[in-house]
Fold this protein.
Amino acid sequence: MKAIVAGASGAIGTPLVAALTRSGHEVIGISRSKGGAARVEEQGAKAIIADVLDRDSLLRAFDGASADAVIHEATALKNAPTHYRGRGITTTNKLRTSGTGNLIDVVRLVGAKRFVMQSMIFGYGFADHGTTSITEDAPFGVPKGGKSDPAMEAFLSAEQQACSATDIAGVALRYGFLYGPGPASARIAKMLRTKLFPIPRGEGGTLGWLHVDDAVSATVAALEHGKAGHSYNIVDDEPATWGDVFDAMAAATGAPRPPRLPQFMLRLSTPFFAEQMIDTSMRVSNAKAKSGLGWIPSKPTFRQGVASMA
């Protein structure tokens, strides 16, 4: 299969391009910079420098090209997990709204029939969802009148554009909270070592987590087996609190246990991040991805995932 990957030099895009080329797929990777394009070529793929948000130049870049599929992994979230604020989240919202539309135009231009896009479990809402297991049938991308409304609207827009099209097979992957190898995790490890990564007292909410390697394998599975118009939760098997995960990460990297701060201090310093850590709790089911994609996480819990980072 010939696949175009947007965000090909990012945290998921880089190992995804490598996995696709190893599997025998021909890959064209989109990156905004020469440095990113060089990383794409290092993975054995062809690189095209283009801005997903610039529709005209993006379409010119693929004029006369052909492909079987397009994969959307483009975000502006470079400093996980504290990136969920400011310019990073604003640009990412645009990448999920107009960027998704631009890439669907590329799908049609190159004659592709398949479109796989990144979504996230946070589209279920930054709230305490209790102990109920959340499936793909739960309400998604619903604004609540709060600071996270633009993100909710972007999640919903992207999935609606991808999954409602009748002339392409659109598939949305709702990734859990991502961690694993890469610059963002190196930054987190440094913050842990210097005690600059606090956890709220009470350990924070419970989330579905996902190692980057498993995000990649799920994306390859969706490319090959995903059902048109469907969304899939891509999380590991064990929901866990922020305290559980980052205590384990600190131990694996030789860092001290993260300090616990009063919740009000986190709300004052990083309100959007606090909304994730304190107010949000969700137990997300991966049953549909396992049965529908034949996907099994290689790191079934954060314990195996964090250990691999050491």
